[in-house]
Specification:
Layout (H helix, E strand, L loop, with lengths): L12 E4 L5 H12 L3 E6 L6 H8 L5 E5 L5 H13 L5 E4 L14 H26 L5 E6 L12 H21 L4 E8 L8 H4 L2 H8 L14 H8 L10 E4 L22
Parallel strand pairs: 1-2, 1-4, 2-3, 4-5, 5-6, 6-7
Helix pairs in contact: 1-8, 3-4, 4-5
Length: about 270
C-alpha cells in the first residue's frame, strides 16, 4: 500500500452492475468520487445514457456495457467487453429484481425470475470477473445482499431466499478466492426507498411501522452506502473477506417500539 491513502481508488477500474438508477448508480457515484474509472451495466445500454453523462462529469472514464443476468452468454460477453479497456479491479454485483407476492401466489416463473437473476446471475458474474482477477493476484468483489440476507419478511419469499443465498455464496467464494488475493464481501442495505419498493413507502402507516423498528429512526438514504462501498473496494478492507456488512440503521438488532423513558434502561439516579 505504501503511502497511498487507504480509501483512494485512483487508477482502479470498477464494474457496477445495474447502475442505470437507484442504489447502483449511487454506488457508482461514490466509487468515481474516490477516483475509480467505471464500467456500468444494464440490460439496455440506452438506459445508461444519463448515468454516463453524470459520472463522466466527475472526471473519470465511464463505459456502458449491456448485461442480462439471466443469460450466460450475456455475462461472458459483458465481462469480456469490460476488460477490453483494462483489468477489472473491483466488481460491485448489484443488479437484481424482486417479485412481491404472498407465498401462496408465487408461481414457478416468479421464483425462477428472482433466483436466476439475484443468485445465479450474481455467481456467474463473480466467476467471470474472478477469472480476470486471478492472474493478477488481486481484486475486490462486492456482492450486494440485503437485510433479507439475515431476516425473513412476509411477501418476499423468493427475494429473501436469493439474498440469503448471496450471503452464503459470498463466504464460499471468499474461502476459494482468498489465496489468490481476491476479497469477496457482501454489502447488505436495509430498507432503502427504490423503484422496486416505492409502493410501500407511499403507505404512511407502513412507513411509521418500519421507522419504529429502526434504531436510527429513518429509512436509508442512497448516500448512506457511499462509505461502505468505498471501504470494501479499497485497500482499507484488505484483510476483510467473507463478511456481510449490514447498512441498515440498526433494524437487524430486532428493535421494536421504544419503551417510555421511565422504563428504558431502568431507573436513573
Amino acid at each position: 500500500m505504501g503511502d497511498t491513502p487507504l480509501f483512494d481508488l485512483t487508477g482502479r477500474r470498477a464494474v457496477v452492475t445495474g447502475a442505470s438508477r437507484g442504489l447502483g448508480l449511487q454506488m457508482a457515484r461514490a466509487l468515481a468520487r474516490a477516483g475509480a474509472d467505471l464500467v456500468i451495466t444494464a440490460r439496455d445500454t440506452a438506459s445508461l445514457a444519463d448515468s454516463c453523462r453524470e459520472l463522466e462529469s466527475l472526471g473519470h472514464a465511464v463505459e456502458p456495457v449491456p448485461l442480462d443476468l439471466r443469460s450466460e452468454a450475456s455475462i461472458q460477453a459483458a465481462v469480456a467487453q469490460a476488460t477490453e479497456g483494462g483489468p477489472i479491479d473491483i466488481l460491485v454485483n448489484n443488479a437484481g429484481c424482486n417479485v412481491r407476492k404472498p407465498a401462496l401466489e408465487i408461481t414457478w416463473d416468479d421464483w425462477n425470475t428472482v433466483l436466476d437473476t439475484n443468485l445465479r446471475g450474481t455467481f456467474f458474474v463473480a466467476q467471470a470477473a474472478a477469472r480476470t482477477m486471478l492472474p493478477r493476484g488481486r481484486g475486490r468483489i462486492i456482492n450486494i445482499g440485503s437485510v433479507t440476507s439475515v431476516f425473513g419478511y412476509a411477501g418476499l419469499a423468493p427475494y429473501c431466499a436469493s439474498r440469503g443465498g448471496v450471503k452464503q455464496l459470498t463466504m464460499s467464494l471468499a474461502d476459494e478466492f482468498g489465496p489468490h488475493g481476491i476479497t469477496v464481501n457482501c454489502l447488505a442495505p436495509g430498507w432503502f426507498r427504490t423503484a422496486q419498493n416505492d409502493v410501500l413507502y407511499r403507505d404512511e402507516e407502513w412507513l411509521a411501522y418500519l421507522v419504529d423498528r429502526i434504531p436510527l429512526r429513518r429509512p436509508g438514504r442512497a448516500d448512506d452506502l457511499d462509505g461502505a462501498v468505498v471501504f470494501l473496494a479499497s485497500d482499507a478492507s484488505g484483510y476483510i473477506t467473507g463478511q456481510t456488512l449490514l447498512v441498515d440503521g440498526g433494524i437487524s438488532t430486532g428493535a421494536t417500539r421504544a419503551l417510555p423513558k421511565s422504563q428504558a434502561g431502568g431507573a436513573t439516579r
